[in-house]
User: What shape does this take?
Amino acid sequence: KDVVLIIDISGSMDNHGRMEMAKEAASTIVDTLAVADRVAIVQFSDVASLIGGQTSLIRATSDNKQMMINAIQELEPIGATNFYDAFDKAFDAIDKTIRAEQTTGCNIAVLFMTDGQITEGVSSTCRLCSCDNNDV
Assistant: This one.
């Protein structure tokens, strides 16, 4: 399978142990992947980026999984909450993996971990619907 984890690292994740719960869940998911799987992790707050500097999904080898788990454990909450950039990065990574013919050819799963509401990257017109407010 191809798996993309999207992890909110905005400042509000510092409340009520949310960041630690997200780290634990993400690490557990990465640990369960097999070498035939591909994975990418997107961290986001004001802006999003892929952990490890990748631009596409990578094989879930033991070394790659350990690198990702280590990077997950180092995440620190900061900034606002920009869902749009997070999803852009996730779908770009999936697209690049498919175009490079490096996909598993199996199911694609996107897991989105957040505690909140969009606070960054929102225009006066909602991008996900045709409403005139920021409610999504």
Summary: Residues 83-99 form the longest helix (17 residues). DSSP finds three helices and five strands in the chain. Confidence is low (pLDDT under 50) at residues 132-136.
